[in-house]
Write a structure and sequence with these properties.
Strands 1-6-5-4 form a 4-stranded parallel beta sheet, with helices on both faces. A two-stranded antiparallel ribbon has the order 2-3. The protein is of the alpha/beta class. 39% of the residues lie in helices and 13% in strands. It is built from 7 helices and 6 strands. α3 packs across α4 and α5 packs parallel to α6.
Length: 180
């Protein structure tokens, strides 16, 4: 399949259909048995570093480090993407503002709600300013209000020029926000 630039693309199918496997191949975490995976023109097998520069990946089950603060968590991922100390500070602040985590900067991750942890998981995909975001079941386990907030965040990321691929096994979860 091909996802046009700037779309919010809904990748839907029942559990076990291969959605997560496909997203992991896009994120260079798994190699395809056959076929080819291109992300922004880069081959996921031949150019994994180039793919990682343009892709932000939020897995369906993401480990969070419970005993660190929000700012420490985001700084860690910004450093992993090679951002300098000065750039990291600016970028982490901007990401926290965008994802509405600014007031929680010094809160321990363990003290956050499920919805705020989901928001943090999206925030950690952003420090390197990827063109493409792949979010595996981003609304899984969220209450109705947190789902609305998640949709608003995803729509804001699209307005910022991101191409977003969302997976879900629930059509109604994706139908209101997806453009394709």
């Amino acid at each position: 399949f091909e996802v046009p630039k700037g779309e919010i693309f809904g990748f839907i199918g029942p559990n076990g259909a291969g959605k997560t496997t496909t997203l992991r191949m896009m994120a260079t975490l798994l190699e395809p048995d056959e076929g080819r995976v291109l992300v922004d023109g880069h081959d996921a097998v031949e150019e994994p570093s180039a793919v990682r520069q343009v892709l932000g990946f939020m897995p369906d089950s993401f480990g969070v480090y419970e005993r660190i603060t929000v700012i420490e968590y985001l700084d860690f991922f910004a450093a992993a993407h090679g951002l300098s100390l000065v750039t990291r500070a600016r970028t982490v602040d901007a990401v926290m503002q965008l994802t509405d985590l600014g007031d929680l900067r010094d809160r321990l991750v363990a003290q956050m709600s499920k919805g705020m942890k989901q928001r943090l998981a999206i925030a950690r995909t952003l420090p390197h300013d990827p063109k493409v975001l792949t979010l595996d079941e981003p609304a899984n386990g969220l209450d109705p209000r947190a789902r609305i907030e998640m949709r608003e965040l995803i729509e804001e990321l699209q307005r910022l020029g991101k191409t977003i691929i969302l997976s879900s096994h629930i059509l109604t979860e994706l139908s209101d926000m997806c453009t394709s």
